[in-house]
Amino acid sequence: xxxxxxxxxxxxxxxxxxxxxxxxxxxxxxxxxxxxxxxxxxxxxxxxxxxxxxxxxxxxxxxxxxxxxxxxxxxxxxxxxxxxxxxxxxxxxxxxxxxxxxxxxx
Length: 106
Hints:
By secondary structure, the protein is of the alpha+beta class. The chain is 25% helix and 19% strand.
Protein backbone atom coordinates (compact mmCIF):
# COMPACT_ATOMS: atom_id res chain seq x y z
CA UNK A 1 0.00 0.00 0.00
CA UNK A 2 1.46 3.41 -0.92
CA UNK A 3 2.44 5.58 2.00
CA UNK A 4 -0.52 7.42 3.49
CA UNK A 5 -3.14 5.66 1.39
CA UNK A 6 -6.03 4.35 3.43
CA UNK A 7 -4.56 5.73 6.64
CA UNK A 8 -6.10 8.04 9.19
CA UNK A 9 -4.55 11.47 8.83
CA UNK A 10 -1.99 12.20 11.52
CA UNK A 11 -0.82 15.68 12.35
CA UNK A 12 2.60 16.83 11.23
CA UNK A 13 3.25 18.56 14.55
CA UNK A 14 0.96 17.25 17.26
CA UNK A 15 -0.35 19.41 20.09
CA UNK A 16 0.99 18.62 23.54
CA UNK A 17 -1.67 17.20 25.84
CA UNK A 18 0.39 17.19 29.04
CA UNK A 19 3.79 18.68 29.65
CA UNK A 20 5.87 17.64 32.69
CA UNK A 21 9.46 18.48 33.68
CA UNK A 22 10.66 15.22 32.09
CA UNK A 23 8.03 14.02 29.58
CA UNK A 24 5.36 15.15 27.18
CA UNK A 25 2.14 13.35 26.31
CA UNK A 26 0.84 14.33 22.90
CA UNK A 27 -1.22 13.29 19.92
CA UNK A 28 0.38 11.14 17.25
CA UNK A 29 2.03 12.43 14.09
CA UNK A 30 3.48 10.83 10.96
CA UNK A 31 7.06 11.01 12.23
CA UNK A 32 6.12 8.55 15.03
CA UNK A 33 5.44 5.62 12.67
CA UNK A 34 9.02 4.35 12.42
CA UNK A 35 9.77 4.51 16.18
CA UNK A 36 6.34 3.05 17.01
CA UNK A 37 6.96 0.14 14.61
CA UNK A 38 10.42 -0.48 16.13
CA UNK A 39 8.88 -0.55 19.63
CA UNK A 40 6.14 -2.95 18.47
CA UNK A 41 8.71 -5.25 16.83
CA UNK A 42 10.85 -5.58 19.97
CA UNK A 43 10.37 -9.01 21.64
CA UNK A 44 10.95 -7.78 25.20
CA UNK A 45 8.65 -4.78 24.86
CA UNK A 46 5.90 -6.92 23.38
CA UNK A 47 6.37 -9.93 25.68
CA UNK A 48 3.09 -9.39 27.59
CA UNK A 49 1.23 -7.94 24.61
CA UNK A 50 1.04 -11.03 22.42
CA UNK A 51 4.52 -10.81 20.91
CA UNK A 52 6.13 -8.61 18.27
CA UNK A 53 4.07 -7.27 15.37
CA UNK A 54 5.15 -6.33 11.86
CA UNK A 55 5.22 -2.84 10.33
CA UNK A 56 1.84 -3.12 8.59
CA UNK A 57 0.13 -4.21 11.82
CA UNK A 58 1.90 -1.45 13.75
CA UNK A 59 0.76 1.17 11.21
CA UNK A 60 -2.81 -0.13 11.46
CA UNK A 61 -2.65 0.12 15.25
CA UNK A 62 -1.42 3.73 15.04
CA UNK A 63 -4.22 4.50 12.60
CA UNK A 64 -6.74 3.12 15.14
CA UNK A 65 -5.29 5.41 17.83
CA UNK A 66 -5.60 8.44 15.54
CA UNK A 67 -9.14 7.47 14.51
CA UNK A 68 -10.15 7.10 18.17
CA UNK A 69 -8.83 10.57 18.93
CA UNK A 70 -10.62 12.06 15.93
CA UNK A 71 -13.89 10.42 16.94
CA UNK A 72 -13.84 10.52 20.76
CA UNK A 73 -11.23 13.14 21.67
CA UNK A 74 -9.00 10.64 23.50
CA UNK A 75 -6.79 7.65 22.77
CA UNK A 76 -3.41 6.29 23.75
CA UNK A 77 -0.99 9.22 23.67
CA UNK A 78 2.54 9.30 22.34
CA UNK A 79 5.13 9.85 25.08
CA UNK A 80 8.26 11.81 24.26
CA UNK A 81 11.20 13.16 26.23
CA UNK A 82 11.66 16.91 26.61
CA UNK A 83 14.14 16.77 23.72
CA UNK A 84 11.40 15.22 21.53
CA UNK A 85 12.61 11.59 21.44
CA UNK A 86 9.80 9.05 21.14
CA UNK A 87 9.61 6.90 24.28
CA UNK A 88 6.39 4.92 23.88
CA UNK A 89 2.68 5.33 24.54
CA UNK A 90 0.26 5.47 27.43
CA UNK A 91 -3.47 5.86 27.94
CA UNK A 92 -6.78 4.21 27.23
CA UNK A 93 -8.79 3.43 24.16
CA UNK A 94 -12.56 3.76 23.88
CA UNK A 95 -14.43 0.63 24.90
CA UNK A 96 -17.86 -0.55 23.81
CA UNK A 97 -21.11 -0.89 25.71
CA UNK A 98 -20.59 -4.63 26.24
CA UNK A 99 -17.06 -4.24 27.69
CA UNK A 100 -16.81 -5.77 31.22
CA UNK A 101 -15.86 -2.35 32.66
CA UNK A 102 -18.47 -0.49 30.63
CA UNK A 103 -18.06 2.06 27.84
CA UNK A 104 -15.42 4.78 28.12
CA UNK A 105 -16.84 7.09 25.48
CA UNK A 106 -20.00 8.42 27.13
